[in-house]
Design a protein that fits this description.
Helix content: 25-40%
Structural class: alpha+beta
Number of strands: 17
Strand order of the largest sheet: 1-2-3-4-6-5
Shape: globular
Mean pLDDT: 79
Distance between the termini: 52 Å
């Protein structure tokens, strides 16, 4: 694409934003909605290459299927003069690569960034999509400094084997997982967890974990070399962060965090302890709509029985001689007899996940640190999971094994699970 087009579809081209190996990106104006947009266009020299055309079409389909506040939204998709184009939100805040140029970020900044990105990444994985090229250059910011994941050009459906002509090793060497670097035919979401771990390493230290003179040399180090100690790169960091990095960047996928949310939760606990500020909740996913407690759950604001009795008697015209005495007795009984207090669960582990249902197969919706108290609404039939209300007044489930309860679990009401 030697010359810049004047228009693409209805969009008026203003300038070229960048050019990569498989596409050019333009800044354009949408006259219909009166807004600037970014348009990614496949260069004409690749139009006859089925592999590149397939990658571009896959990106359009993948992004269009994703709806999350931390994923760059797609506005439009089309073809003109045998050229495919993708219309996206124009991100005016630059990339994470730009923000890493001065060096490492502060712990609170790192925590906020990873928390938001983890939520988006888990949303991607929930749709069985693996990004496969997560890196600072693909993390863009809007005008409010909110980060977004972009560029799903080489993403694949999880566990789908690559072909001999489309290697699974495609990606950026500095952030590539060992299994991608080896060219393994099956790549799953844990490859993205590794890349997020590399990004975390860079955010904390301002440096990459592995460096070499060639891209191949870097890829080989991801496969063979032990992970460097982050304290050697930045001695001011809390030592506990090494454990988070070690697990996120484990050579074997099965040894890594199962989800990006789990990584973010572990990071949040360490950061909270290091900064001396322990938040009431370390939210991993955006707050969901409030819902009513499960049927049969005790109310958190149940009034004493005696108060209700006293109110009834106070509004009742006593016609008998002993009415006053009866009222006094009711007041005394009311002060002594109260409805059962709501059961409370207290977290006993360093961190604990709250899930959308009673089991590890359900998504993590939040994570909480030790000693946080949660209101219990009930339990599952086996008594292994508790339905709770979080400090943010949201509903979820937590494993009974990671909490102590003020009421014996067996005496809690059984509530219906999702």
């Amino acid at each position: 694409m030697d010359s810049m087009p004047n228009t693409i579809g209805r969009y008026e081209i203003k300038s070229e934003l960048g050019r990569g190996g498989m596409a050019a990106v333009y800044l354009a104006h949408d006259p219909t909605f009166k807004r600037d947009v970014a348009i990614k266009v496949l260069p004409p020299e690749f139009l006859n290459d089925p592999q590149f055309r397939e990658k571009f079409q896959r990106e359009a389909q993948n992004i269009a299927s994703l709806e999350h506040p931390a994923i760059v939204p797609v506005y439009d998709f089309g073809e003109e003069n045998s050229q495919l184009y993708l219309v996206m939100r124009h991100m005016t805040g630059g990339s994470l690569s730009d923000r890493l140029e001065p060096g490492a970020l502060s712990l609170p900044e790192v925590n906020d960034l990873i928390t938001r990105l983890a939520a988006a990444l888990d949303a991607v994985h929930a749709k069985n999509i693996v990004h496969r090229d997560l890196k600072p250059g693909n993390i863009l910011f809007d005008q409010y400094d909110h980060p977004y994941i972009s560029d799903f050009g080489i993403s694949k459906t999880a566990n789908v084997k690559a072909t001999s002509t489309a290697s699974a090793s495609t990606g950026t060497p500095a952030y590539i997982s060992p299994e991608q670097a080896r060219g393994d035919l099956v790549i799953d979401s844990r490859s993205d967890i590794y890349a997020l771990g590399v990004i975390l390493f860079e955010l904390l230290t301002g440096k990459l974990p592995y460096e070499a003179d060639t891209a191949m040399g870097i890829a080989i180090k991801h496969i063979t070399e032990p992970l460097p100690n982050i304290l050697e790169k930045n001695p001011d960091l809390p030592p506990q962060l090494q454990g988070v990095i070690d697990r996120a960047m484990a050579k074997e996928p099965r040894q890594r965090y199962a989800t990006a949310g789990e990584l973010a939760s572990a990071l949040a606990v360490v950061v909270a302890a290091a900064t001396g500020v322990v938040p009431a909740a370390l939210t991993v996913f955006p707050p969901q709509a409030k819902s009513k407690p499960p049927a049969g759950a005790p109310s958190a604001d149940t009034q004493p029985i005696g108060v209700a009795v006293s109110a009834m008697l106070a509004n009742t015209r006593v016609r008998i001689v002993g009415g006053v005495l009866l009222l006094l007795i009711a007041l005394i009984v009311g002060a002594l007899i109260v409805a059962p207090k709501s059961a409370v669960a207290t977290i006993t582990t360093s961190s604990a996940n709250v899930r959308s249902g009673p089991g590890t197969e359900f998504a993590v919706v939040a994570a909480y640190s030790k000693s946080i108290e949660l209101q219990i609404a009930g339990r599952n039939e086996a008594g292994t999971w508790l339905a709770i209300t979080t400090p943010n007044d949201e509903q979820g489930w937590i494993a009974a094994s990671v909490v102590t309860t003020t009421v014996e679990v067996g005496k809690l009401p059984v509530v219906e699970s999702p």
